[in-house]
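Thread: quick sanity check before group meeting

JM: Hey all, I'm pulling together slides for Thursday and realized we never actually wrote out the predicted structure for the chain we discussed last week. Dropping the sequence here so it's in one place. If anyone has concerns about the input, flag it before I start.
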Amino acid sequence: MRLFCLCSLFPIWLAAATPVGWGVISAYETPAYDKTGEVVSTLKGGERFDIVKEITANKAPAYYIELSRAKKLRCVITAADAKAFLEFPTEEDTEGLAGIRTLQKALSEYYTTLAMRQAMVERAREQHLAKSPAKRLGDLRKELAAIPAKDRAAEAAQAKAKSNAERLKYQDVRKELRFRATGLQQEIKRLEATAEAWEADHPFDEAPIRKKAVWKRLTQRLREMEAVLAPYGVTPAAD
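JM (edit): ok, ran it. Output follows.
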C-alpha cells in the first residue's frame, strides 16, 4: 500500500526540527512510510517515537516521527495507529522530559503487552488458515505489491538505455510485469472468494486462546497497568 499524498512533507523531511510531541504505537502493528509513500518498516505495538510534525496522508491525520532507537529512523505513520501527545518540554526542562520518558516507557510496556496477546491470536489464526485452500493468498499479495517498484526500476532503466534493443528489452519487461499483475489480481480475486466460502464453513474460534494461562497472565498485567494509565486515555482491553 502507498500513501499517495503526503501533504507538506518534503520541506520538513530534511529539517532537524525540535519534537512537537511524543507517543507510542498503539496498534498491533502498523506500516511506516518514507517521503514517497513507500513502506520502509512495520512497527510493532509499543514502539516509542517523537513527533516532528503533524501532517496529512491520504486525507487522514498522520505524523512525521523519529523512532526512539539507537539508529534513528524518520518516517510517517497514520495517527489512528498511535497513542500520541502533542506536547514537548523545552531543552532546559530536564525534569519535564524525564517525566515524559517515564510515562512513555509505561505506555510502551502496556501496548507491547497488548501486542503480545494479539500475537497469540494471530499465530493461531495463521495455523487455522493454513488449512484453507486459499493459503497462498499472502504470497500472491506480496508478489503483487512488489510489482510497482519493479516497474519503476524497469522504467528508469529504459529511460537510460543507450540502444533501441535495450529500450525494447525493458519495454518487454514492463509488459510482462503488467501481464503478471493482471494474472495475480485475477488469482487473488478467485482465492478470496474461495477463502470466504471456506472460512464461513470453518470459522476461527479465539476462545481456546483466551483460556490459556499465558493469555490470563498478560491480561492480569494489562489490568494492573490500566489502573495507572487511565488518565492518559488507556481503556480496558477485552478479556
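AS: nice. Residues 164-201 form the longest helix (38 residues). The helical segments are 10-13, 94-129, 137-160, 164-201, 207-210, 213-229.
JM: adding both to the slides.
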